[in-house]
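re: ur question from earlier - yeah i can do the single chain one, its not a big deal. heres the input i used so u can compare w yours
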Amino acid sequence: MSAMRVTNVSRFEAARTQLQANAQRLQELQTQASSQKAIGRPSDDPAGTAASMATRAAQRASEQYSRNADDGLGWLSAADTALSGVSSLLRTAGDRLIQAANGATMTPASREAIASELETLRDDLLASANASYLGRSVFAGTADGPAFAADGYAFAGAAGASVDRRIGPTTTVRVDVDGAAVFGTPGTPPVDPDDPAVPGDSVFELLDRAAAAVRAGEPLDASIAALGARRDQVLAVHGAVGTAHAQLLRAKDALAADQLALEAQRSGIEDVDFAKVLLDLETQNLVYQSALQVTSRVLQPTLMEFLR
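and the output i got, formated as C-alpha cells:
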C-alpha cells in the first residue's frame, strides 16, 4: 500500500506541476495579447530588456540631435536673411558712391541727398547687424543683447564664443555668425595725443566717412574700394552660412532615416506579432483544457484507493 500511495502522490504532483506550467504559459500569452508587448517585466527577458533600453536611449539621442538641427536651421535662416539684406545694402551704397564719384557737376543739394542716403543705409546696416533669432542676436555669439552699439558701433558680442549645435555624437555645427568678421570693428582713439589713432574696419564708420567725403566733394576711390572689399567679405561669410545650412539639412535626412531604423529595432524587441500571439493563445487554451480533462480522468481516485 505504501508503494501505491507514493505512486499516486507522484502522479498527482507531476500532473499539478504540468497544469501549473500550462496555466502560467496561458496567462503570459493573455498578458501579451492585451498589452501587445513581448516583455512584461525585465525578468521575462533580461537580454531583451537591455537591448530595449539601449535602443530607447539611442532614440532619445537621435530625437535630441534632430531638435538641435531644427534649432540650428532657424539660426542659419535668420542669419541668411540678414546677410542677404546686408549684401543688398552694401551694393546700393557702392552704387551711390560711384554715382557721387562720377558726378563732377553735382550740386551741393545732390551731394547732400546722396550723403543722407548713405547715412540711412548705415542705419539699416546697423539694424541688420543686430538681427536676432528667438531673442538672441545671430551676430553676437553667446553674448546677450545686440551685437553692435548704436553709439560708437562697438562690437558687443562674445568674440570667439560661437553658438554650436550638436547633430551627432561627434559632430557639431556653428549656427551663428561672427559679427566682427562681417561688419568690422571701429578704430580706437590714441591714448596719448602724440600717438596715432588705431584704425578700424567698421563698415558703419566707413559709411560715415564716405558720407562726409561726398558732402565735401572729396575723392571717393578709397571708400569705394573699402566698401567693395567689405561686400566680398560678406559674400564669403554668406557662403559659409549656406554650407552649414546644407550640412544641417543632410543631417536632418540622415537622422530621420536613423529614427525609422531605431523604431523598427525597438518594435522588433518589445512588440509582439499580434496575429501569432492570438494563434498561440488559442492553441495554448486548447492544450490547457485538454490537459485538465485528461488529468481528471487519469487521476480520478477510486474508493478502494482511498481505503488503502
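Strands lie at 132-133, 136-137, 164-168, 171-174. not sure if urs matches, ping me
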